[in-house]
Design a protein that fits this description.
By secondary structure, the protein is α/β, with parallel strands linked by helices. The chain folds into two domains: 172 residues, 3-Layer(aba) Sandwich (Rossmann fold), CATH 3.40.50.300; 75 residues. It is 37% helix and 23% strand. The protein has ten helices and ten strands. Strands 6-7-8-3-9-10 form a six-stranded mixed β-sheet, sandwiched between helices. The protein has a four-stranded antiparallel β-sheet with strand order 2-1-4-5, covered by helices on one side. Helix 6 packs parallel to helix 7. The radius of gyration is 18 Å and the shape is globular. The chain starts with 6 loop residues before the first strand and ends with a helix. It binds adenosine-5'-triphosphate. The site of adenosine-5'-triphosphate has 13 residues, from helix 1. Belongs to the ABC transporter superfamily. GO terms for molecular function: ATP binding; ATP hydrolysis activity. Pfam families: ABC_tran. This is ABC transporter ATP-binding protein.
Amino acid sequence: MNSKPLLTVTNLSLADSKRTLFQEINFDVSQGEVLAIMGPSGIGKSMLSKAIAGFLPSDVMVDGSVQLNDSEVGQLPMLQRSQTQRPAVIFQDALKALNPLATVEQQLSLALTVNKTRLNATNRDAVTELLAQLGLAEPDSILALYPSQLSGGQRQRICIAISLLGSANLVIADEPTSALDPITENEILNLFRNSIQQRCIGGILITHDLSAALACDKLLVIADSTMVAYGEPTQAIRQSQHPFCQQLEQLLS
Ligand SMILES: Nc1ncnc2c1ncn2[C@@H]1O[C@H](COP(=O)(O)OP(=O)(O)OP(=O)(O)O)[C@@H](O)[C@H]1O
């Protein structure tokens, strides 16, 4: 894709009151592109996604630029952002992300219309078609269920549907499949990537799974508080001299 990036992150640094989490992070995401982010546990991958989405803890300071849809959002909390300044976020724990007291229909309706909790005849067809595309059998009956009545894989598919129904043109998924079995994990990651590409929006996948990262368009690796690899996944890993990437390289077939 040669279009102007949806998201451009330039010289981004994050620090809390005690230490720098990372510094000098640079990357971009274009339409139809999925960027994977990998790195050792605790390096700040989730904090990076929170910086992009605008819900960093108050004691974490941001330096550098986050340009989303041509506007600077690095210092803007989520609640002060307009619709085009808000990416959709899919979290690791779908049960916590969904409202336990609302049915699937109510949550999907809210994603579509902001203030309605029932689907109308027109959008019901579009929603059930999306649920079917996301691998949910019998989508009509699923609409009436509460999150606790769904399996982990079904809940995460609903979270993907919610992220795709809103107006966001960037979707960030933070380890969305870490609680799922490997077959469901693979299916959901494929659905995530395909949905991004088909809709020509942008995606970020934070993952510890090398095969999931290799299937993305680009890979950013953060280690030792900075970026140590960036680019086409296999090439980026092979070109990096950092020990974390050298360990990843040993896992490449
Ligand atoms: N509320 C907070 N305020 C300040 N610093 C925090 C807060 N929560 C986490 N941190 C710090 O941010 C660091 C990065 O955490 P983060 O969850 O972003 O790492 P991660 O790379 O996503 O880890 P993992 O791969 O294990 O999910 C943590 O080591 C912690 O020190």
